[in-house]
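We modelled the chain as a single entity of 271 amino acids. Its sequence is:
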Amino acid sequence: MNRIDATFAKLRAAGRTALIPYVTAGDPSPASTLPIMLSLVAAGADLVELGVPFSDPMADGPVIQRASERALAQHVGLLDVLAIVAAFRNVDADTPVVLMGYANPVEAMGQAAFADRARAAGVDGVLVVDYPPEEAGDFAALLAARGLACIFLLSPTTPEARIASIAAMARGYVYYVSLKGVSGAGHLDTDEVARKLAEIRRHVALPVGVGFGIRDAASAQAIAAHADAVVIGSRIIQEIEAGPASAAAGRAGRWLAGIRAALDAMPRRAV
């Protein structure tokens, strides 16, 4: 069983909501990424989304853009990201890792070669922001043949017909973008998120994670009341960039531990 599926099954049986932090590989330095990932897991992360640095991250706001810029300035590319995952697997054999990024690095490597290398490194799932589902069938099949999950984004403007088509192809979980706009922007409307999740679940049997706009314990709890997973990126990167790179792992872990404690303080979800 894919580590993503196993993790969500375990959490569902315990009535718990998954906590999924996002960080950009290579930020604030290539050497700091593995300690940051391990610190997040120690703080209670159930799955780690690892961003592949890219020069034009169209879905990302200024915080994650800065993270990509810092990583690219240190020449961190897709092969380096895969090497970081492999190093993580030498220490942690259980926590799922999802690569999140854009099509250009994958296309430059070649889809089949990427899928092979991702599997060998220990990646569990892949979310490519700018692979529309209408054009992602072959890529999803390449991943599925290697036991990797192809994860898709859904947004407040995704119509039901498109949700249904994504449901037929998605594996692992789906990622609902709770805001119209880029990461880290806008106001989180919990009632609207709940309404949209009900619509999504009419078509999608997979767990649904919610990200964009979750910045503190209160917003994490509000989303966790409705979602299977809470995804947090920009706010963690703000912690990473708030001080010396040598202490970034500690800052990120301490902040995430507060979110984990807030989620664990909630009543257990019905199984």
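As a brief sanity check on the tokenised model: Strands lie at 18-24, 48-51, 97-101, 125-128, 149-150, 153-154, 174-177, 208-211, 229-232. The chain has twelve helices and nine strands.
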